[in-house]
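Mods, move this if it's the wrong board.
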Amino acid sequence: MRFAPLEEHGPLTSTELGALRSLNAAVLTSRYEFESAGAVWDRLESRGDVADVHEAATTFPFYGEAIHEIARSAAAYERRVALTAWRYTAAAVVLGVAVLQRVAEAKPPLLATTVEELCQEPTLGRLHEALSVPVADLVPVLDHDLADHRTRKAEQWGQVRDRVDYAIDLVLEIAEDEEAAHPRIKDEAAGCLLTEHCPPHTDPVYHSVLEPLFQLAEDVPFDISRVIKNS
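Not the wrong board. Structure tokens:
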């Protein structure tokens, strides 16, 4: 993952630029660790299958016990890394969209307090709102872009938005299964933080959303750069 060539003395404030860069670095690290943790889990799962076959004819199950014990720890680590990655990636997208929109519409710089607030993990509803911003219409199309560049970009953002909407539904389903007092309706689920509503004994709420969100987090700074260069 790269970071866009945004200048220190460009139209972005030092606060906006510093926050974008810091979140980008956080996303980069957590993404690589998430991918590494997934590779470890895949390797252990394969070895577990081999161990099950190997020990079917033996009274000494130590190999399988060791593999499965390590696999449980690896799975827990993978989820912890994924939740960390989610926190920073979702924030990077929300902040990036806010900066992109204000630059494209020639609005005043974001207040430092606003930037700090946007750097925190957004609620699922806040992320959904950011993904609903017509980013494809804000970013100028260059001569070398394919004819359907804007359409494909709009579809990409729309697909991730739909997946976040599904994640909101999952948070509500988990609460119902757990007989939790909150959330009970979808609007309440939209006000939740994903990292606080992804119990370890359930399927990951971030499944199918996190990886495409990584791509958007990488793209937004370049979209900001394109808007600046064409303003």
